[in-house]
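I hope you will forgive my troubling you with a question about protein structure. The matter concerns a single protein, recorded as an amino acid sequence and a row of backbone structure tokens. Please examine both parts with care and let me know of anything in them that strikes you as inconsistent. Here, with my thanks, is the record as I have it:
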Amino acid sequence: MNSINIAPITIKKILNKYSVVLLDSYGVLIREFGLVNGAKTLVNSLLEAKKPFYVLTNDASVLPNKTALKYQKLGLNINTNNIITSGCALKLFFKEKSLLNSKCIIIGNNDTIKYVENAGGIYVSPQDDFDTLIIGDQSGFQFTKTINSVINSVFNKINKDEFINIILLNPDVIFPIKLNTWAYGPATIAIIIEEAIKYNFPTWTNYKLFRIGKPYKYLFEIVYKLTLTNNMVMLGDQIMTDIKGANQFGIDSVLINPQNQILKSQELDSDLMPNFTMNL
């Protein structure tokens, strides 16, 4: 297969070319061992140039103020207002879909619950009547007990022929925990639930699965509403979330540390192709 030749870009050119810079978190700023090499230089360059920037992360298990504190302890001057998570996007989504005061079963931890309540949802247990199932994280709860309980609640809803909203905050099927090592993500829970529905109720379709985080539009829409410009660029290390999300939203994308990705022309559709590459 032929390798793809994509033009490199520098931090200086990014500062001159774009009004707003978007950063992925894991792989661009931090890794399992701490800061990514070059992350502090990148953030300091944005701050010195007074360039508006936002960290876009699919993680709905940690509130922005806690994430900001983590960054600051590592030496990155990133504040709460610079961080937009898939949990933050839930408020926009609830407004768009008229889900205010929706009774929600929540798969996730306490911070996931706070995201839902901040968006206007009402937290209920899997044993209670509900309108919406929200999948926020794959940890922070007793997995087998919780998933079994949720599946049975969904089946009870189906038996009453009642519509179900299923909201997947973090659409990652897998995610990197270190170089060449991956873990399953929250989307695997959505797959389990959908497969259970298909197995027990093969003709039932009275539900809708919504996906919130990258590569879907909602995080990018929040930034647009804050800045009122499309002259943005997304810096990320994941083709299927960062690059695809930016391209589909109609903004430029930069693949960070491309040596960690295999770029082959026969494997990439146009919406997966970064505009530039950059090594940190």
Residues 54 and 245 are 15 Å apart (CA to CA). The first helix runs from residue 11 to 17. The first strand starts at residue 20 and ends at 23. The mean pLDDT is 93.
